[in-house]
Amino acid sequence: MENRTIQPTISRNFHFSLIFVLAIKNFMNILHIQRTFEEIQEVHRIARQTTHIVKLRISDTTELGNFLRTSISTIPGIISIQTEVVLETYKETAKIPIS
User: Fold this and answer.
1) Which long-range contacts (CB under 8 A, 24 or more apart) does 42-48 make?
2) Do 37 and 71 contact (CB within 8 A), yes or no?
């Protein structure tokens, strides 16, 4: 069987990545977050109780502030949000090898 690769495209012009740690009470709200916001690329549940790591792509810090203020912080059950700006990425790929 031939190996193929799928590479999704990103529709917007994003300039940097941001990682934020989101503590949220209700798992259904995490499902809502990952389905609703196109800026969000990844959502990971980590070992801490009620905590998730979210990878987001945005164009600038103004968009970040607006996104956090008008989108994420309005979702019920948010306990805390901690943001980290990605300064440098050594490897990132959207390619998925298909066998």
Assistant:
1) 46/21, 48/23
2) yes
Q: 39 near 58, Cβ under 8 Å?
A: yes
Work out how many domains the chain is built from and give that number. Answer: 1
- Sign of the CA dihedral running 67, 72, 73, 74: positive
Residue 27: which CATH number? 3.30.70.920
Give pLDDT tens digits along the chain (99 positions): 455 544 444 445 556 677 888 888 877 888 888 888 888 888 888 887 778 888 888 888 888 888 888 888 888 888 888 888 788 888 877 777 887
Question: Rounded distance, CA 64 to CA 4, Å?
Answer: 35
Distance CA 30, CA 78 (A): 10
The domain in which residue 24 lies consists of 19-88
Question: Is residue 98 in a domain?
Answer: no
